[in-house]
Design a protein that fits this description.
Blueprint: E1 6-11, H1 18-28, E2 37-39, E3 54-55, H2 58-66, E4 70-76, E5 80-85, H3 90-94, E6 98-102, H4 105-114, E7 120-126, H5 130-140, H6 145-159, E8 167-170, H7 176-190
Parallel strand pairs: 1-6, 1-7, 2-3, 7-8
Antiparallel strand pairs: 2-5, 4-5
Helix pairs in contact: 5-6
């Protein structure tokens, strides 16, 4: 069954600018919905339930898997689990809403297996070469060589998705304004007609 709404999945390596582009879209479009990810990772200072995640215990997450409550879920970052609840997506798609969500490649595959292809739009954020991206990552916060290597491997994996994406936004160094305009054009074209 195809729904009247659309789910935009934004994919790209860590440091590619996904979060900033999504934040800008959130500021510009109050009508867009942003499904909250559920996670088993520990809550951090300044975070609350629902901001930025639904925080679940391992047992609660298992129960949700058993109940088939997730559209997609994955175990990443040393066994922490993350997933998207059907209750945060299906009703909004049924109502014809536009939803926007940052997603790992693995999650995109699960979404595509669960939802009609007509309801999913993928946007790949291309930040250029690994060397350029590594500079960005190192510039944001201290990072160990091991973690940087882990990010490089994930970059290679996610980069392979680029050819599968419906849209590609180039967010190269010094070109954020152009990337933002390109992303905005894609999002605006998908907004439901008033």
């Amino acid at each position: 069954m195809t729904y009247p709404g659309k789910l935009v999945l934004v994919v790209g390596a860590a440091g590619s600018g996904k979060g900033v582009l999504i934040k800008r879209a959130k500021e510009q479009h109050s009508e867009i919905l942003f499904p909250i990810t559920a996670t088993t990772r520990a809550i951090r200072p300044g975070e609350t339930e629902g901001n930025p995640y639904h925080f679940l215990t391992g047992e609660e997450f298992d129960a949700r898997i058993e109940a088939n409550d997730f559209i997609e879920w994955a175990s990443i970052d040393g066994g922490k689990r993350y997933g998207t609840l059907k209750a945060d997506v299906i009703p909004a798609l049924t109502e014809g809403k536009l939803l926007l969500k940052e997603m790992e490649v693995q999650g995109v595959g699960q979404m595509r297996a669960t939802l009609p292809k007509e309801n999913i739009v993928t946007v790949y954020i291309d930040a250029g070469s690994w060397e350029s991206l590594a500079r960005r990552i190192k510039g944001r916060a201290p990072i160990s060589d091991e973690e940087l290597e882990s990010r490089r491997l994930r970059y290679e994996y996610e980069r392979a998705f680029k050819d599968e994406a419906d849209h590609i936004v180039e967010n190269f160094d010094g070109k954020f304004k152009e990337a933002d305009a390109s992303f905005e054009k894609i999002i605006s074209s998908l907004l439901p007609s008033a």
